[in-house]
Amino acid sequence: MAARVTTNQSSINDDSELTTNDPEHQTNVSSKKRLSSSSNMLATSSLISPTGLTSLISFIVLTCAYISGFMSRLFSVIRFESIIHEFDPWFNYRSTAYMTENGFYNFLNWFDELAWYPLGRIVGGTIYPGLMVTSGVIHWFLHMINIPIHIREICVFLAPFFSGLTALATYLFTKELWSRRAGLFAAAFIAIAPGYSSRSVAGSYDNEGIAIFALMFTYFLWIRSVKTGSVFWSSCTALSYFYMVSAWGGYVFIINLIPVHVFVLIVLRRYSLRLYVSYSIFYILGLILSMQIPFVGFQPVRTSEHMLAAGVFALLQAYAFIDYLYTKIPRAADIKQLFFGLIMIVGLIVFAAVVVLTYAGYIAPWSGRFYSLWDTNYAKIHIPIIASVSEHQPTTWTSFFFDLHLLICLFPVGAWFCIKELTDERVFIVLYAVFASYFAGVMIRLMLTLTPCVCVLAAIALSKTLDYYADTETSDMSTSPVVPTNDGDGEDTESDKNNRNLYDKAGKPKPIPGRRGTPGTNPEAEEDTSIVSSNIKTVVVICIAMMLMLFAVHCTWVTSNAYSSPSIVLASYNNDGSRYIIDDFREAYYWLRKNTPERARVMSWWDYGYQIAGMGNRTVLVDNNTWNNSHIALVGKAMSSNETEAYKIMTMLDVDYVLVIFGGMIGYSGDDINKFLWMVRIAEGEHPKDIREQDYFTENGEFRVDRTGSPILLNCLMYKLCYYRFGELQTDFRSPPGFDRTRHVEIGNKNFDLQHVEEAYTTEHWIVRIYKVKKLANRLQAKNALRQVQRRKSIYSTTKKVAGQARKQGVILNKPQIKKGTKVSKRKT
Amino acid sequence: MFLPKKFDILSEKIQQLTDWSLKKPIIRLNSERFKHYVKTAPRNYSMIVMLTAMSPQRQCSICKQAHDEFQIVAQSYRYSSAFTNKVFFGLVDFDDGSEVFQYLKLNSAPVFIHFPPRMKPKKSDYMDISRWGFSAEQIAKWIHDRADVQIHIFRPPNYSGFLLIILLVTMIGGLLYIKRNSLEFLYNQVVWGMFVVLAILICISGQIWNSIRGSPFLHRNPQTGQIGLFSGSSGYQFIAETYVVFLLYILFLNDHSFYFRSPFYPCVSIQNRCKASNKLIDLSIQCRLSSMFSIGNK
């Protein structure tokens, strides 16, 4: 017994050393190598003692989490190639490439001529540059040490690299909140959770990929600074917040959540000087730093989204002052209610000031995108272009489960544990859980911000459960909280066999006596141990291990099947299981790049703007940065009006080529005909006189492209461009010519000619079709020519006619001639 | 001789209609009036007519709602700056003018018809309620479409919700005041914890989706009468389904927090319940997983 006590003490010392050493190392260095060396040093120096073993195990688990987080995101690279995915990443990639070529300052002043013809786009002032700068720095560093890597490779692998770092940040965060074991769980969870990997697979080079790391790291530093109250940590928080601001528009979530945390702490009467120091420093530094980003500018002092932080800052100053008075004035306890009233009055004044300033116009009211989070019907009525995006739909419970699986079930449990043993920092995670789950429910896209929180809370729930169940021996000696057991070894071998060992290893109980749980839990545990026998415990542990394995399988399956398709290269599977790559998009964009004049202007729907500019290097009219609704509506109007009207718009906009996406040939459902109603709707919003949505429906209100479809639809430009000469094509022996495989109908309008445009290029599977807009002069000459030129076509047709007449008059040799007589029978009656 | 008379009739009709609609935005029409003002020839104004059956014995519940919405449209038009004598709003009740229904060959209510000037209504002049619904905004949009009059809907502010909130606040305040000596529960972590966990559960079991989309509670197969709790597609859900999920998540909560002596769990028969719930959880997860697979393979 005595020996155990001594080891406990020594391990307590070691552990405290560890906790002081670790974070410093990890904040200074975010790269993996330094971390590994430091932990290795710690591990080898005291390998024999249980603490050394603990840190070795946690190091191994973290490394495994990092590697598996990195690896599980590489499916798309292995299946296809190292390629940038989807739409927005193409713009990010293009601007990163521009930055590496021309330098940072040129990048900030970059005026992009390829976008939004004829307006152009000032790129430096309209983006969050954090992503480009990050990959630019990595590129510069690697070239400095003579590793000549192309910038594209860095862009492709940036998101998986940062998701590994997110796992480390989550570990640190959870360790501050609960215990190191929970931290290991959380790191393993976030590394493979589909809710996060959906946005960070290799090739999806988007802001979210690095922003979640910045988010978790800022939260960790904030918790740290609230706990210590040191200026150093809160300055670090502000710096990390600056990185987040430069990376993603979601920084608004941080700058609202932290003030809410401070406010709730004041309400809960948990105010302390630590809180005062950390928030004051964080707010002021963070405010100044965030205003350095050109895109953010003066927003932090001028918009309602940031006013909560300012208000809480003012309130905190007042509270601190009143609190100071309270300690200085003699017999202050007698007039306690006066102080209370004073604080309330200050709060009301701050609130009223913000309201008055908003009405006076000094502070911009909530922008539509944020307002639609509270009033869920707002966007549907007022901003159709926001409502049209599928990411902005509310979330069903199935997608919660699909993205988080087991974790979503453990999530409320973790929240409950945190509330039961409430401390300053656990208030934070509880608030985070409530707000994030509400936002994720409103908008499926914000599942991304919920995922880290769910991972943390599920890890807490699981680690607390396992703390209790995974030690079978505590029934004998209940004084020591956790003891290593045989059970853990069994799990270890089992998991080694399965090669997906992170969770089980993390679940392995490790002797960390310096845990932060309140001492009040121990007697309870003692009572329970007398009830539950060790057999039951083993069964429960095996059940949990099974569930974790299912979780790992599910995560891998989801990441591989649902989230790893690059969407510019499509794959289909033949009957024998062999894979067939459909590469039409790149084929078309490459054609554009090589065969069109350099200044050619391409009109397409806005979805493909970034890709045309990025891969085809040609000027586009509208792109995915949908800031100018009227411009988009003009393109929509051109697409949805008939050819003559569209030609007027196209000449007005100087269009040289028109590009449409057509999936009817191979059954690709994301094509322009399926998006067509949105074009009509957006065009109708700006030009209600010319375009009416109702005209594009049949009498029964259906959207059909077959014979029953509305004639306006069957003659509009989009229809004609998609189905030009499609009626001559028989895709299958069983179906008639002109059979659309996406909509499973035979098209209604088959044999038409194009008057003002001509086909320039159609890809192998007809997915991308490019048309050249004819020049105006040709058309006028042909129609108004004084001298009638006999055209070849007419010659053919007349000869045909003559031939036909000749045949009509032909006679069969020796055929008896029948003279037509009148009917006899009729006369009789 | 003929021409001035026609003009006389027309101006007299317009005068009469304007007077009526100034008094009340919706003009009630019976058979004779309908014949005179809507059906017969000299007419250079549009009529938006709602045909309905308002009397209680007809048992038309949506007629009342439709009438309210129509009333809002007419009110907004009457008091807007766009008010002219080009468009009038009329209403025909079945009990006043059943001949009108016969004349138009209608056997259902409510129906909105636009009578364009100098013409008979075409097919598109009948508003398709089954597709558009009959909310005031949709009616205004339809009128804008047919008669080219822009009406900005102004709904009278709804005071009932405001009153309800005031009532609730006063009730809670009163309760607190009455029980002001035992406000302990306000400081009770368990109560607040339950609130927080409830909020989280509501969010993650998809209740927000229900309130935005408004799906049916259950699905009943019309042929077999079979009741479907779960919807087959991954992009849709029924309300009942979300309650089931809600309860399942609570089961988890029970299972893991029992050794806290939580308020959920006053009496202990831990061993049995532990086994049972674990089995259930495993089962449910596997069910769900298999369904996921099937969805994915689709």
From TrEMBL, chain A:
Topology term for the membrane: Multi-pass membrane protein
E.C. no: 2.4.99.18
Gene3D superfamilies: 3.40.50.12610
InterPro entries reported for this sequence: Oligo_trans_STT3 (IPR003674), STT3-PglB_core (IPR048999), STT3_N (IPR048307)
Pfam families hit by this protein: STT3, STT3-PglB_core
Region (Disordered): 1-34, 474-529
Keyword annotations of the record: Endoplasmic reticulum, Glycoprotein, Glycosyltransferase, Magnesium, Manganese, Membrane, Metal-binding, Transferase, Transmembrane, Transmembrane helix
Coiled coil start-end: none
Superkingdom classification of source: Eukaryota
One GO term (biological process): protein N-linked glycosylation via asparagine
Residue ranges, compositional bias (Basic and acidic residues): 495-507
Transmembrane segments: 42-68, 122-142, 154-172, 178-197, 209-225, 245-268, 275-295, 307-326, 338-364, 397-417, 429-462
Residue span, STT3/PglB/AglB core domain: 602-658
Keyword Transmembrane helix: yes
Catalytic reactions on record: a di-trans,poly-cis-dolichyl diphosphooligosaccharide + L-asparaginyl-[protein] = N(4)-(oligosaccharide-(1->4)-N-acetyl-beta-D-glucosaminyl-(1->4)-N-acetyl-beta-D-glucosaminyl)-L-asparaginyl-[protein] + a di-trans,poly-cis-dolichyl diphosphate + H(+)
Recorded GO CC terms: oligosaccharyltransferase complex
Polar residues bias locations: 1-29
Main location group: endoplasmic reticulum
Named cofactor requirement(s): Mg(2+); Mn(2+)
Pathway info: Protein modification; protein glycosylation
Family statement drawn from the similarity comment of this UniProt entry: Belongs to the STT3 family.
Record protein name field: dolichyl-diphosphooligosaccharide--protein glycotransferase
Organism: Rotaria magnacalcarata
Lineage of source species: Eukaryota, Metazoa, Spiralia, Gnathifera, Rotifera
UniProtKB/TrEMBL annotation, chain B:
GO cellular component, one term: oligosaccharyltransferase complex
Membrane topology recorded in Swiss-Prot or TrEMBL: Multi-pass membrane protein
Keywords: Disulfide bond, Endoplasmic reticulum, Magnesium, Membrane, Signal, Transmembrane, Transmembrane helix, Transport
Gene3D superfamilies: Glutaredoxin
Pathway annotation from the record: Protein modification
InterPro entries in alphabetical order: OligosaccharylTrfase_OST3/OST6, Thioredoxin-like_sf
Location within or outside the cell: Endoplasmic reticulum membrane
Family listed: Belongs to the OST3/OST6 family.
Protein name: Tumor suppressor candidate 3
